[in-house]
Amino acid sequence: NYQIQCENVFFRYNSQTQYALESIDLTIPANQMTAFVGRSGAGKSTLIDILMGLNKPEKGQVLIDGRPLRSDQLTSLRRAISYVPQDPFLFNTTVRENLELVNGKATEGEIWEALEFSSAAEFVQKLPNGLDTVIGDRGVKLSGGERQRLVLARAILRNPSILVLDEATSALDTENEAKIQGALERLKGRMTIIVIAHRLSTIKNADKVVVLEEGRIIQEGAFAKLSVEK
Ligand code: ADP
Ligand code: ADP
Q1: What pLDDT, on the 0 to 100 scale, is given for residue 170?
Q2: How far apart are CA 47 and CA 55, in angstroms?
Q3: Nearest to 212 by CA among 10, 16, 59, 47
Q4: DSSP state of 191
Q5: Mean pLDDT in runs of 10 for the chain (230 residues)?
Q6: Which of 47, 66, 190, 192 falls between 20 and 30 A from 83, CA-CA?
Q7: How far is the centre of ligand 2, averaged over its atoms, from the C-alpha of 57 (Å)?
Q8: pTM for the predicted model, two decimal places
Q9: Ligand 1 centroid to residue 66 C-alpha, Å
């Protein structure tokens, strides 16, 4: 799996004078969990886009496994990434079909593994947006936490080398949060995980926390060693 590095990266949108990212030096270790924290506008999404090769640094470079990212590697890099956006789209068809639609070749075992990993097996009968007529569990709408777990299952099923989660701003209840954290904990070692976090409580098990402010890294290290308010 890939190790991604940024070397003295600078980035500006269009012709803005303000840099969205400034002198970023960073290593994302393979098969560990790295968290990006910072206020809205700090540069978290911009940094993710640079790491995924969606934006090109104005200065500096991105290295993959120690070598500069080449344009002919972009397609395979993007295929290796599962990106979970804040407000993902779900088809209003069964939980299972939502999974089958991302990977038509997935075996029964792979589907169940993804469901188990994200504790989504327990609501496999429900529908993302529900139905007017509810019979038993059929037609029951997914809760916000269940939606996120389904989206996580869908991302896992693509078997990515890199899993990127843009944490939902809507606060999850502790039970759903624990289930997602548990899944990420078990996925570590198998894939590189990057989470964008708004709340520090959700990144306690990250191997590395990167704190951004106004486009710069102001702190980097293990959660326990951070000198920000927790
Ligand atoms: P968050 O990820 O914190 O929910 P967004 O990524 O939606 O926030 O936006 C972060 C900041 O970037 C906001 O201040 C927003 O106004 C600004 N922004 C996002 N897209 C654009 C754009 N296309 N042009 C200018 N500013 C933008
Ligand atoms: P975060 O993800 O931490 O909320 P962003 O990476 O979205 O921060 O934003 C970093 C800076 O870049 C902010 O000043 C934001 O307003 C600006 N920005 C983000 N997206 C765009 C865009 N598409 N066009 C212009 N400016 C943008």
Answers
A1: 53
A2: 9
A3: 47
A4: B
A5: 93 93 97 94 95 94 92 91 86 88 88 91 87 78 88 92 80 80 90 89 87 96 77
A6: 66
A7: 14
A8: 0.84
A9: 31
Residue pointed to by tokens 């639609």 = 101
- CA dist., res. 192 & res. 214, Å (int): 26
Predicted complex: ipTM over 0.85 = no
**Which atom of ligand 2 approaches the CA of 47 most closely?**
6
Q: Which atom of ligand 2 is nearest to the CA of 36?
A: 3
Q: What is the dihedral of CA 165, 166, 168, 173, to 10 degrees?
A: 30
CB 221 within 8 A of CB 208: yes
